[in-house]
Design brief:
It is a single chain. By secondary structure, the chain is mostly beta strands. Helix content is 5%, strand content 58%. The strands form 2 sheets. It has a 19-stranded mixed β-barrel. A two-stranded antiparallel sheet has the order 1-2. Strand 15 and strand 16 form a beta hairpin. It starts with a strand and ends with a strand. 15% of the residues are buried.
Length: 313
């Protein structure tokens, strides 16, 4: 096609198309949080969630004694629910009863829990936009100086995550994690706690593929942590972690597994301190689950066993 003449300059058909595409049309512009898709790289997630894949295998919710949790939805959609919990016979925790109330929608999530000691735990998540999320965490007790409240603000672009944190006791934190290739992300975190007189910097890297996740983090106050998770198919995961404290020269190696069965999950781990632990969760119909937990530390002759039931999600 012949060139198009605009203000004395000629443009080809391709130039004219790109020229018209560059003209802003307010009615067709996407929301502002969709204008920061800077690259094809994936979002690496929060810095504080760097080791989540390994923690799901190596740190299950172990318990001892008897534990029962019941969660009852009060609305047809399940957005509002209440729950009750009972802990009995534990060697490390006193017998306790707790009541919880939860409210969950697409934008707002509120989770609360209060027990017989008067301790109140609560978390609030609010999604301002798909890229901006606020989180408030509170742990309030009757003991002096035992209450903690923090506020987190997460901002995510297409390939990075920035998080700011403030809390009581002059707690300040800032972290940033950036994808630099489709599989590699690098980041850093700074923390300052004025009341405790503590400050630290941490640096970390993450390697993530379809079947493997590896992380390495180094903190100025001593800890060096390396983790590796390998997915053996869709239902089996193996994990390992090396922890070394540069100041105390102490180290611990932990290895674990997680099997997702048809009606349950089995998780177990062993470490170089002589500790062996496992958790079995078997799911029945109608939202009923049976849990069996065991933990043995041979050098200390310490044995802990627990069983529990869970009704509802």
């Amino acid at each position: 096609p012949p060139p198009i003449v605009i203000m004395g300059a000629s443009y080809s058909a391709c130039d004219a198309s790109s020229f018209s595409d560059s003209v802003p049309f307010t009615s067709d512009r996407p929301p502002f949080w969709q204008r920061f898709k800077r690259s094809f790289l994936p979002n690496p997630g929060n810095f504080e969630d760097l080791n989540n894949d390994a923690s799901m295998v190596l740190r299950p919710n172990l318990f001892d004694g008897f534990q029962a949790n019941i969660n009852i939805p009060l609305t047809p959609s399940g957005s509002f629910s209440v729950g009750q919990g009972i802990d009995m016979g534990s060697q490390v925790r006193p017998n306790n009863y707790s009541f919880s109330a939860n409210y969950m929608t697409q934008e707002l999530v509120m989770i609360s829990r209060v027990d017989l000691s008067g301790r109140v735990n609560g978390r609030i998540f609010y999604t301002h936009t798909p890229s901006l999320v606020s989180k408030i965490t509170a742990d309030v007790g009757s003991e002096p100086h035992s209450s903690r409240v923090t506020y987190d603000l997460d901002y995510r672009t297409s390939d990075a995550c920035l998080q700011g944190k403030i809390g009581n006791g002059t707690l300040l934190g800032l972290s940033y994690l950036q994808s630099i290739t489709p599989s590699v992300a690098l980041g850093a975190e700074g923390t300052y706690h004025g009341k405790a007189g503590f400050s630290a910097l941490s640096f970390a890297g993450k390697y993530n593929t379809e079947d493997d996740v590896a992380t390495l983090s180094i903190a100025t106050y001593g800890p060096v942590v390396a983790t590796f998770v390998h997915k053996v198919g869709a239902k089996v995961a193996l994990a390992a972690e090396v922890f070394w404290d540069a100041k105390s020269r102490e180290s611990v190696f932990t290895a674990g597994y997680k099997f997702d069965l048809k009606d349950g999950t089995v998780t177990g781990q062993v470490d170089t301190t002589g500790r062996i632990a496992a958790l079995l969760q078997h799911r029945f119909d109608a939202g009923l689950s049976f849990l069996l937990s065991g933990e043995i530390t041979y050098p200390k002759r310490d044995y802990k066993f627990g069983f529990g039931v869970q009704l509802g999600n």
